């Protein structure tokens, strides 16, 4: 008996030593410098990023880029802040548009301008609108990478089949209501007319397109915001528009979050949903997923008022300042690689994010795409006609994730019957409190 | 050798009597102290570092605003607490959590009991059914979420298809604030069933059959036998199941994260999810710490009740 | 374990009743297994047909399983979970039995108070302590490593409590005899106490393995790469990165995860049942 139990302990000790070691051994790569790359891309975007990493790794033998998916944009920000300075932190990371202010103030990255200057990288090949979004004081903080436009998608085949006139390319809210109602009525309720995801980003776009600032100091471009407005004529009208569609029964609510997006896309592809508003980043997936003809228009605007234009959405690439020089250098090489004309063209064709390199449009892969699907050009046309102002250049403010949660909740409340005024007022107060706390906690005033 | 050990007759006997004599000399004491360090030290260290210290730290942080890196920066006293109890969104989370916890506990116990009673029947192949009934015990939170997400899917899910076929109004389970919590409750109850069934079934099995034979002879109906004999006798087990289910329900996180991310309209934003959201999404660590302290207070209160009742059976 | 209750005499009525009972059992089984069977069924269907709302398909295949295994790190997730859960389980059994032993067989000042301290930890939910614990493992340099998911769970108050109950039932004569023979505490612990508590130790092992296996929030916060991500968060990852649902593949991944646990559960059910009831009734 004694011997038996001694063996038992021995086994235990062995297990403890062997198991973790075996697992670690696999993670050690060969002699190349590891460049851990955090991103938040799903579906085709993720596949294309993996492809980029593969191509980059094959193109040289010094660095090994390892892409790692870190969940949603919202999750990634805190992960970046809290791993900074530890072995778990990434060398290069993708972070969303509205986190720019927070990451900039947290000093977790080496300014992109430093690498640009050192290598005399020609930034003029990159879209100036996109560059401006991620600059401060004329210096590039991070590299714009995936830039999308929110657009309106409709199933053109369904419209044709039901004999409904397609919406104009720059539609107003009532243009869309007309089409949505017709879809619902003529299909006898079999096809739902419209959905607008409960999503703070879309809420911000309603404001931008109505020429309204969400935060004071011109959306934070001229100073740290101290006050926010969510209950405005523009948001009121947008919400009233949604409600009128809910009332007439042609609207379907898929809720919020990744699930909602998956579900609305699945329904659209299955021909059970006529119209939805979403990022242009889904174009390639939508084109590939259905035989029906895809229709795309600009973001809808207020009735009787011209569109101010929507902000670019998406994310940029940052290089962490907590890694050794050669790692940062490798990260920079990778950034240059994905910003090339060829890579950006591939990127747009694979996803629907706009190619940011000016020379990308001439690339055969995009030329072919436009020939086959003229609608695929709509997002870049929408971007091209925008006259940039502070209302449509995105919000430069900390705590935008809270804003997204709050507006998303307000949308959910409104969709489910809470009066518009009340829901928006609650969100506005919540966000003002949060902004005051953030400024106080970080000693911004 | 084990089998030949004399069984201890009275487990309730105080432990003092189990302590051997002969610990009086100084050397024995010193030796024992070494053993105390060896036997108790590691556990004590782990619990101090990962249970006690963080609780103190959480309480401390709950009195502060925190900066971008989560460090305490401005002392605000109890204003985080006051703000929370004035915040309608938090109050609705609290309300939703209580509804969820109570519904889950009651439904789990009733359904678990139905399964346990049915599984008592003396039938051919009943063992097979008992195994099937306990099977959800092996289903973890992510797996359950994936199965049920599909069932609740508004376009292709079973529920949607059934209501379409029967021309019933379609319910968008996870996006409708009136139904999302119910959907999460259903999923949780389903996950809990296996464990609850096993325990209740075991308790019913251990009841002496002579009682029921006597009742049968006295002409007591099966229903009356259940309510008058079985139920009172297994009430300690029922209580145990209730407490465990309650506490686990208060700590629910995974299903929410996978199925509704706290929405729609905060309908499923239960306490733990809110802590996660405020800390690890919004970066508001002071507020999240306050919410953690409130959560702890609730769970501690329930555990205390459990100890009180256990205390009657267990000697210290 | 079979019931000893008398069964009413066999009649036609009895036969009918029995069929009724089977019908009831069947209905309950469908309710309990429904979501699982549905998942299993969709895992062998082509995704294209699932997203059209088909519940029946003639194109049944294991393609989704092959896709899951070849294109996702699902097996790696399983390995990670296996490592984390096994190590956690072994340590919990060891450390809990040692501290339980100390509370029963060692004499020291403040023993009762210290035991109370252990009990108090059962009142403090780990979920409410993730913020400081995150800082702790961060400062220890354990982020994104198995250790971050193992070290905080090396011991458990519940396990100590349960094993203490078992040790207290050991006959006094045994300890007396051991003292006369001059056995040290370590010898008594390893040669007599541990074998005596075998069933309780097995129960604790099963319990701690399962709770480690089911951990969700903590690994989600502390792992950042597939090399260390356990299976619960791995599934979250797979589910999240499909931007439009590849239902078949996701369901197949879920099935791959659940089938091993179910097999273990069915094999170990006897022990588990005995142990759980022991813990519950006491």
TrEMBL record, chain A:
Top-level lineage group: Bacteria
SUPFAM superfamilies linked: Periplasmic binding protein-like II
This protein's record includes keyword rRNA processing: no
Primary site of residence: other
Gene3D superfamilies: Periplasmic binding protein-like II
Listed Pfam families: SBP_bac_8 (PF13416)
Keywords: Signal, Transport
Subcellular location: Cell envelope
Taxonomic classification: Bacteria, Bacillati, Bacillota, Bacilli, Lactobacillales
Residues making up the signal peptide according to the UniProt record: 1-25
Protein family membership: Belongs to the bacterial solute-binding protein 1 family.
Organism whose genome encodes this protein: Secundilactobacillus folii
GO CC, any one term: cell envelope
Protein name (database record): Extracellular solute-binding protein
Keyword Signal recorded: yes
InterPro entries documented for this protein: Bact_solute-bd_prot1 (IPR050490), SBP (IPR006059)
From TrEMBL, chain B:
Cellular component aspect of the GO annotation: plasma membrane
Location(s), subcellular: Cell membrane
Main localization, broad class: membrane
UniProt cross-references to Pfam families, sorted A to Z: BPD_transp_1
The UniProt record lists the keyword Transmembrane: yes
Membrane topology: Multi-pass membrane protein
InterPro entries linked: ABC_transporter_permease (IPR051393), MetI-like (IPR000515), MetI-like_sf (IPR035906)
ABC transmembrane type-1 domain: residues covered: 94-306
SUPFAM superfamilies: MetI-like
Alphabetical GO biological process terms: transmembrane transport
Keywords: Cell membrane, Membrane, Transmembrane, Transmembrane helix, Transport
Transport found in the keyword field: yes
Transmembrane segments: 34-53, 98-119, 131-151, 179-204, 225-247, 292-310
PANTHER family tied to this protein: ABC TRANSPORTER PERMEASE PROTEIN, INNER MEMBRANE ABC TRANSPORTER PERMEASE PROTEIN YCJO
Family, as annotated: Belongs to the binding-protein-dependent transport system permease family.
Protein's UniProt name: ABC transporter permease subunit
């Amino acid at each position: 008996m004694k011997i038996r139990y001694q063996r038992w302990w021995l086994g235990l000790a062995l297990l403890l030593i062997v198991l973790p070691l075996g697992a670690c051994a696999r993670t050690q790569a060969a002699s190349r410098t590891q460049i851990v790359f955090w991103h938040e891309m799903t579906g085709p975007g993720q596949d294309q990023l993996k492809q980029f990493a593969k191509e980059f790794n094959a193109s040289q033998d010094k660095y090994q880029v390892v892409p790692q998916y870190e969940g949603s944009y919202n999750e990634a920000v805190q992960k970046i802040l809290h791993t900074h300075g530890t072995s778990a932190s990434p060398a290069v990371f993708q972070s969303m548009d509205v986190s720019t202010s927070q990451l900039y103030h947290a000093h977790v990255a080496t300014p992109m301008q430093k690498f640009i200057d050192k290598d005399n990288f020609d930034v003029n090949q990159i879209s100036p609108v996109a560059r401006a979004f991620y600059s401060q004081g004329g210096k590039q903080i991070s590299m714009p990478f995936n830039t999308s436009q929110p657009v309106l998608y409709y199933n053109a085949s369904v419209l044709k089949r039901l004999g409904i006139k397609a919406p104009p390319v720059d539609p107003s809210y009532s243009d869309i209501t007309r089409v949505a109602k017709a879809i619902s009525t003529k299909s006898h309720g079999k096809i739902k007319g419209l959905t607008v995801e409960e999503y703070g980003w879309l809420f911000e776009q309603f404001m931008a397109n109505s020429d309204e600032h969400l935060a004071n100091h011109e959306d934070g471009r001229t100073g740290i915001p101290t006050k926010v407005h969510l209950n405005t004529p523009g948001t009121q009208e947008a919400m009233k528009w949604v409600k009128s569609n809910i009332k007439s029964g042609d609207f379907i609510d898929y809720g919020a979050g990744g699930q909602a997006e998956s579900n609305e896309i699945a329904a659209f592809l299955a021909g059970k949903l006529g119209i939805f508003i979403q990022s242009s980043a889904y174009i390639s997936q939508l084109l590939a997923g259905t035989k029906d003809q895809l229709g795309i228009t600009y973001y809808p605007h207020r009735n009787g008022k011209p569109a101010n234009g929507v902000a670019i959405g998406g994310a940029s690439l940052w290089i962490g300042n907590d890694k050794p020089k050669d790692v940062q250098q490798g990260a920079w090489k990778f950034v240059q690689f994905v910003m090339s004309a060829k890579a950006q063209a591939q990127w747009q064709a694979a996803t629907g994010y706009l190619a940011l390199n000016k020379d990308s449009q001439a690339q055969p892969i995009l030329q072919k795409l436009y020939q086959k699907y003229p609608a695929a050009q709509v997002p870049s046309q929408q971007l091209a006609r925008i006259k940039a102002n502070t209302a449509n250049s995105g919000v430069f403010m900390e705590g935008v994730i809270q804003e997204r949660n709050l507006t998303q909740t307000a949308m959910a409340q409104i969709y489910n019957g809470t009066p518009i005024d009340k829901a928006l007022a609650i969100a506005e107060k919540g966000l003002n409190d949060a902004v005051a706390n953030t400024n106080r906690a970080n000693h911004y005033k | 050798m084990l089998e030949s050990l004399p069984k201890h007759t009275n487990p309730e006997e105080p432990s003092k009597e189990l302590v051997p004599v002969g610990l009086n000399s100084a050397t024995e004491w010193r030796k024992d102290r070494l053993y105390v360090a060896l036997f108790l030290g590691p556990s004590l260290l782990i619990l101090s570092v990962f249970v006690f210290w963080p609780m103190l730290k959480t309480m401390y942080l709950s009195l502060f605003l925190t900066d971008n890196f989560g460090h305490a920066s401005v002392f605000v006293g109890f204003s985080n607490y006051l703000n929370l109890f004035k915040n309608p969104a938090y109050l609705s989370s609290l309300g939703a959590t209580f509804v969820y916890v109570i519904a889950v506990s009651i439904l789990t116990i009733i359904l678990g009991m139905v399964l346990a009673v049915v599984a008592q029947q003396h039938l051919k192949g009943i063992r097979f059914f008992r195994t099937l009934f306990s099977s959800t015990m092996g289903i973890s939170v992510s797996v359950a979420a994936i199965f049920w997400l599909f069932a609740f899917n508004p376009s292709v899910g079973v529920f949607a298809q059934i209501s379409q076929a029967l021309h019933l109004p379609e319910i968008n389970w996870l996006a409708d604030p009136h139904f999302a919590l119910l959907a999460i409750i259903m999923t949780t109850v389903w996950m809990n069933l296996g464990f609850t069934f096993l325990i209740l079934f075991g308790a019913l099995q251990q009841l002496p059959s002579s009682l029921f034979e006597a009742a049968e002879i006295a002409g007591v109906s099966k229903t009356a036998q259940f309510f008058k004999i079985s139920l009172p006798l297994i009430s300690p087990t029922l209580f145990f199941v209730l407490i465990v289910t309650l506490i686990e329900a208060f700590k629910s996180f995974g299903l929410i994260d996978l199925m509704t991310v706290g929405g729609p309209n905060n309908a499923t934003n239960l306490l733990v999810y809110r802590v996660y959201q405020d800390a690890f999404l919004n970066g508001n660590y002071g507020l999240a710490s306050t919410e953690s302290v409130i959560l702890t207070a609730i769970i501690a209160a329930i555990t205390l009740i459990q100890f009180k009742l256990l205390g009657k059976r267990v000697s210290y | 374990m079979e019931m000893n209750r008398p069964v009413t005499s066999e009649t036609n009525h009895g036969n009918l009743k029995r069929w009724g009972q089977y019908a009831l059992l069947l209905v309950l089984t469908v309710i309990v297994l429904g979501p699982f069977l549905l998942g299993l069924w969709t895992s062998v269907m082509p995704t294209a047909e699932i997203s059209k709302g088909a519940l029946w398909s003639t194109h049944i295949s294991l393609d989704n399983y092959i896709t899951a295994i070849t294109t996702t790190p699902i097996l790696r997730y399983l390995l990670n979970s296996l490592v984390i859960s096994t190590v956690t389980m072994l340590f919990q059994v060891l450390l809990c039995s040692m501290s339980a032993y100390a509370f029963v067989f060692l004499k020291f000042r403040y023993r009762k108070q210290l035991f109370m301290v252990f009990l108090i930890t059962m009142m403090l939910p780990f979920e409410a302590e993730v913020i400081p614990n995150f800082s702790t493992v961060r400062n220890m340099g354990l982020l994104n490593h198995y250790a971050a998911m193992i070290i905080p769970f090396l011991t458990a108050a519940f396990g100590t409590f349960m094993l203490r109950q078992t040790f207290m039932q050991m006959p006094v004569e045994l300890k007396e005899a051991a003292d006369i023979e001059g056995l040290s505490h370590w010898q008594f612990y390893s040669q007599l106490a541990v074998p005596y508590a075998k069933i309780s130790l097995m129960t604790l092992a099963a319990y701690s393995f399962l709770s480690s296996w089911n951990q969700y929030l903590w690994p989600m916060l502390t792992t950042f790469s597939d090399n260390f991500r356990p299976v619960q968060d791995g599934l979250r990852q797979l589910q999240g990165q499909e931007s439009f649902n590849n239902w078949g593949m996701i369901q197949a991944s879920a099935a791959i995860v659940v089938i091993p646990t179910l097999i273990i559960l069915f094999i170990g059910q006897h022990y588990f049942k005995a142990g759980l009831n022991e813990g519950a009734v006491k």
